[in-house]
Specification:
This protein has 562 residues and is mainly alpha-helical. It has 3 domains: 96 residues, no CATH class; 102 residues, no CATH class; 274 residues, no CATH class. Helix content is 62%, strand content 3%. It has 23 helices and 5 strands. It has a 3-stranded mixed sheet with strand order 2-4-3. A two-stranded antiparallel ribbon has the order 1-5. The chain is globular. The chain starts with 8 loop residues before the first helix and ends with a helix.
Amino acid sequence: MSETKSPLPRQVADAYVDELIALDPVTGTYLGVKESSSKLPDLSPAGQEALAALQRATLGRLAEAERRPGADSDIERRCARLLRERLTAELAVHEADEGLRTVGNLGTPAHSVREVFTVTPSQTDEDWAAIAERLRAVPAALTGYRESLALGLERKLYAAPRPTATFIEQLTEWSDTGEGHGWFEDFASAGPDALRAELDEAARGATDAVLELRDWMRDVYAPAIEGAPNTVGRERYARWARYFNGTDLDLDEAYAYGWSEYHRLLGEMKKEAEKILPGAATPWVALAHLDEHGRHIEGVDEVREWLQSLMDEAIEKLDGTHFELAEPVRKVESRIAPPGGAAAPYYTPPSEDFSRPGRTWLPTMGQNRFPVYDLVSTWYHEGVPGHHLQLAQWTYVAGNLSRYQATVGGVSANAEGWALYAERLMDELGFLTDPEQRLGYLDAQMMRAARVIVDIGMHLELEIPADSPFHPGERWTPELAQEFFGAHSSRPVDFVESELTRYLTIPGQAIGYKLGERAWLLGREKARERHGDAFDLKAWHMAALSQGSLGLDDLVDELSQL
């Protein structure tokens, strides 16, 4: 290949996305690639190795591209930095065979297979014909996933027992939603009459595959891993922390930071709780009072509409003052999450052409009455100005970045750190002066500080500090972590259980919220110091949101220069 035709780093990154979509149609669907709608990925060990081979080849092409004239420009350099960091972290996870024990209550290949149907186009008969084909692909996909787990058993690479038990319960729920048929059949029931027989048959086959996986997990996998540890230890934790945070963390420093934030937030919460329930023994007593006597939204449809209005209002008040939003970014939809998943709300970004808008999802967990204090800052986090403004802006400016930076190259701690920064920004801007809503915001912040403490603490079996009001001097266990989390959260018992299972499922991810927020705040402060009185928060926000993803190693440096 001649030098004039050799690719620069952004072209290497975008070629990687194209090849990735061919291997992973789930990613293609999230990006809005129509051709992906009928397919599912190969989840077997061979499929995992094919993806790793692509990553290794891409790193080789990247090294060559970085030698080209023009590769040292800011935009090429930033893309190369991200691509190398991400692929290196992903390969480290693969080469440690982590993909052979991916079991838990969210984020597994099986969850990906189910959840992709919720974002697959379903407007036309042609769309539903593709869905029928994708439904027929479910058995092969789940068989490949089972082959990976079986190889993990052969190599004595075991998932944690507690997340495994929860996963088996979820598979049971997916196979029977309470009406004598499964989730896939419920989903397919919305299809056109012209394809009814085809859809029903394909959906039944998908449900049968879920049942087959459930029975194998229950009868073969769970007994085989009985007695295995629920925690991962320092070496595995450090590997996963790198994957989710884009930095080699000082885990002991991060643990100490979690405790410092715990003490700061507890002081603020006590002051706010006094306004709501004078004399309350703890802030969570005041929050329990709000569960009964605070403002509520009654009804599932009503809460969805109310959350939509909350995001619409935030857009109207923030656009032109603290952000400058393009028209496609101004659209975001509130949705109710399908049953059978984790208890936490979440966000799905828009397709690349914005034909599918960004969406927030509320799991109702069977509830029909929703406290407002628990929702306001959460929707600032998931929707506006949180995940939606960042991820939709990445999509909008993808042409100025690379497709990779705007989509699949996302670093969890960057995005979650921005979303937690967004909650704090709304507090700074005066959107949370109501005591109920502000105590709810502080409770959400405390939850993220507690995540740093318990996620690092239990996986590394660290000692609880002597100045802790909770079991000082003892070493963390999952049981102590759940007790601590429950005592320092307004969330119901099922949410707390789901959260702890989540930390055991995906170690190192939950700490990225608070550590990412710290990076965003530090970057803003350094930029403010550099510009002095000329610092323009709106301009900084838009520049920050338009630079694409970065690991925490690089984020502060880049934010400081904006």
